[in-house]
Amino acid sequence: MAGIEATLADGARIWLAGPDGDGSLAVFALAELLRDPGFHRVDGPRLRVPQVGLLSTVPQEQQLRALALERHVREVETGHPVPGGKAAIKPQYDPASTTLAEREQAKADELAVQGWSGVSRATVRRWRTRYHVGGVWGLVVKRRGSTRLDRAAPQVVEALRVLLPQEALRSRSRGWKKRMRRETQWWLDARHGAGVVEVPAKSTFNKLIDTVEASLGLQGTVTQRRARAARPAPPFTPTLALRPGEIVMMDSSPLDALVVLDDGVVGRLELTTAVDVAMGGLWGVLRPEGTKLTDVAVLLAQMMTPVVMRPGWDAALSMAASVVPHERLIAVDERFKDAAARPVIVPETVVVDQGKVFVSPATRAACESLGVSLQPVPPANGPAKGHVERCFGSVNTEFVQWLPGYTGSHMGERGTRVEQEKLWTVCELQALWEEFLVHWHHRPHEGLRHPLMPKKVLTPNQMWAALLPVTGYVPVPLSADDYVELLPVRWQPITDAGIRFGYRTYDDPCLNGHRGQHSGMASKEGRWEVHHNPYDPTRIWVRLPNGFVEVAWIHATSVSLPFTHHVWEHICKVVERTGSREEHEVELALALDAFLKRAARKEKLSASERRVVAKSRATGTVPVPRGELNVLDVPAPSFALTGAYAEPDLDDDTVPDEDDGVPDELDSHTANSPATEGCGLLADAGGEDQWLV
Predict the structure, then answer these.
(1) Cβ neighbours, 10 Å, residue 266
(2) Rounded to whole angstroms, what are the CA distances from 244 to 32, 449, 464, 482, 623?
(3) Over 90: is that where the pLDDT of 216 sits?
(4) Does residue 665 lie within any of the structural domains?
(5) How many CB atoms within 10 Å of residue 66?
(6) Structurally, how many domains does the chain consist of?
(7) pLDDT the model gives residue 22
(8) Which residue has the higher pLDDT, 383 or 348?
(9) Residue 241 located in a structural domain
(10) DSSP-assigned letters across all residues of 430-457
(11) How crowded is the C-beta side of 146, counted as CA atoms within 13 Å?
């Protein structure tokens, strides 16, 4: 605005005229003009409002001294000690007849006569500079001792600020400070050259690293440091969802309680949960440690289908007794007739972490087939899905800590004889968990508030009832093909012998006409899309041009009892190949049948076999339907000998396949995490179509 003169002020506007009478005009809002950093008064400093809040933090003597210095500075610059003063200007401070340097010297001489010590022209100039920058607060004498960070070499501080968060994000074990001192010196040598910057002495460096850790918030345990380092930069914006299913967060975590798996074997389960952000709804499945894509499919089915009231449940848990508009929902979806009071949603966006089962291509494809957007969060970033992370704490508080065999969240909280308590079986715990999920939606949640009743804490069911009139409800019946789409997928050729993988051969007349043929998928080298259920390896589903067809294992009739993929892996490890591929598969089938019979008769087994049997019975089976279904439900499962031990996982990537015409590096599938605990699914299809185990 240099060279422009203000000629007229009109209310909240100011008119500026160009120099030399060129006729140019500019109109500005007065507030906008005063906020501009380039605007200032020609005849003196800009008027400043005293910083009363800051001045109140210093003693009264310093406040009075700063206000007195302000008057002296104004007198030097304008001739008047106070703005708009009417008194005559002293000759030595008259801007019209003296220079600024002369006025500064006159003020220094005046203060020296008044008894101010150490005041020179340079001192007055510094006062002017400080006043222009910080106002009256800039004239307050502030004495602050230097900190350890101020005294340290900036290159060393920079190195620590880089290295400490990197260590936290890599989750490295916390070592001695001696190691960090060497790593800091290596970093300085690489950045600035060898010997250019030296780290401080040992004692000084140890104190410096504590100070830097405190400034970065990286003190505490390795878990706390990792969580702090992975946090995004503030300010934090809360996740907002305005309709059920808009944002659903999903995660898995070990259950902090011991259970009896089978035959006295004690183990832990893993809980896979989903939380709806809009209404705080909770769904979850329990399985022995490790989550498979099949369990994600069960969880999605739970969210989209009503749960039927179980025998023995209190009538207050039914949807008819809740605040949900039950009769209106029945008119839209008959499945709500005998349903428990648990919300039903169709997920739109599912937020997951970087777990292998959650980010696999099969999971993405399954979610895409249901119209669900899958959104993985950055690695090691728990706060990005804080709702489900906090939910695990609530489950521990409200459910797990009341169970016998509660272990606490870490070893420091565990009792000395937890495994000797009267532990619950998996079946008992599963039934109790199903009932707890219904109770959860009757529990007030501090984060749920109605816009018209901000002081009223709502339950998830009340929030769902409040949102239903706004968002509506559309029933989503799932078919058999929908569930097959959610199963793990792999790509295999169809040969004259059928489909081979995992030392198993699947064949059926329906494959005729496609043997040796190209599937049309050039990106998969002509192989065919095959879906399989890890908990039922006796059959697979192949996508042919006319849809999915079920293909059975050729030796399924040789095995008299159901089994899972993990039981098969155990047999593959203990049975050596002695003949051809076909002979070896027959030997595996006979050995599997003998093992299952020995386990059923409870004959003497080795420790590893007992562990396999125990976890197999705890795993249960997740059936897949035949035919088209209209309704899905999630009842309490049965626990026959159909599962296997879940650690470590030996999926098809770790069990070598025999020669099936596919290169080993291409012969893989996407669901290769350990088996987990879930619920069976039943169909209510009016009589004919049922889930087949």
Answers:
(1) 15
(2) 45, 14, 7, 22, 28
(3) no
(4) yes
(5) 22
(6) 5
(7) 63
(8) 348
(9) no
(10) HHHHHHHHHHHTTS-EEEEEETTEEEEE
(11) 5
Cβ of 95: how many Cβ atoms within 10 Å?
A: 15
Residues 46 and 6 in one domain: no
Cα(first)–Cα(last) distance of the chain, in Å?
83
Ramachandran angles phi, psi of 517, nearest 5°: -90, 155
- Tell whether 492 and 623 lie within a shared domain: yes
This prediction has a pTM of 0.62
Q: Is the pLDDT of residue 23 over 90?
A: no
Contacts 24+ apart (CB under 8 A), 150-154: 152/200, 152/204, 152/208, 153/197, 153/200
Residue 290 scores a pLDDT above 90: no
How many Cβ atoms from other residues are within 10 Å of residue 556's Cβ? 13
Distances (CA, A) of 441 to 240, 242, 436, 476, 661: 20, 18, 9, 21, 52
Q: What percent of the chain has pLDDT over 70?
A: 78
Domain identity same for 126 and 53 = yes
Given a cut of 70, is residue 626 above it in pLDDT?
A: no
Q: Is residue 240 part of a domain?
A: no
Confidence of residue 46 (pLDDT cuts 50, 70, 90): low
Helix and strand totals (H; E) in the chain: 21, 20
Given pLDDT bands bounded at 50, 70 and 90, which one contains residue 689? very low
Higher pLDDT, 485 or 672: 485
Residue 361 has pLDDT above 50, yes or no: yes
Cα 438 to Cα 319: distance, rounded to the nearest angstrom: 10
CA-nearest of 647, 681, 616 to 291 is 647
Amino acid identity at 203 = S
Tell me the pLDDT band of 250, cut-offs 50, 70 and 90: very high
Tell whether 111 and 223 lie within a shared domain.
no
Bigger pLDDT: 433 or 650?
433
Is a pLDDT exceeding 90 seen at residue 358?
Answer: no
Whole-angstrom distance, CA of residue 688 vs CA of residue 669: 33
Give the Cα separation of 402 and 398 in Å (integer).
Answer: 8
Residue 475's alpha-carbon distances to 127, 248, 333, 347, in angstroms, are 75, 18, 6, 13
Residue 496 domain-assigned? yes
In this prediction, residue 613 carries a pLDDT of 66
Residue pair 134/70 in contact (Cβ under 8 Å)? The answer is no
Instruction: State the alpha helices, DSSP H only, in 472-580.
Output: 480-485, 565-574
Stronger pLDDT, 687 or 596, i.e. the higher one:
596
Confidence of residue 512 (pLDDT cuts 50, 70, 90): very high
Name residue, tokens 């100011």: 14
What angle, 0 to 180 degrees and rounded to 10, lies between the N-to-C axes of helices 177-192 and 202-216? 90
113 Cβ contact partners less than 8 Å away, ≥ 6 residues apart: none
User: Is 604's pLDDT higher than 70?
Assistant: yes
Look at residues 447, 471, 495 and tell me which one is the last residue of a structural domain.
Answer: 471
From CA 606, how far away is CA 594, in angstroms rounded?
15
Indicate if the pLDDT at residue 529 is higher than 80: yes
Burial class (CB within 10 angstroms; exposed 0-12, middle 13-18, buried 19+) of 202 = exposed
Beta bridge partners of 490: 530, 669
Instruction: Please say whether the beta carbons of 25 and 19 come within 8 A.
Output: no
Same domain? 566 vs 610: yes
Distance CA 273, CA 302 (A): 11
pLDDT at 688: 30
Same domain, 502 and 423: no
Owning domain of residue 531: 481-692
Q: In whole angstroms, what is the distance from residue 223 CA to residue 170 CA?
A: 11
CA-derived radius of gyration, the chain: 37
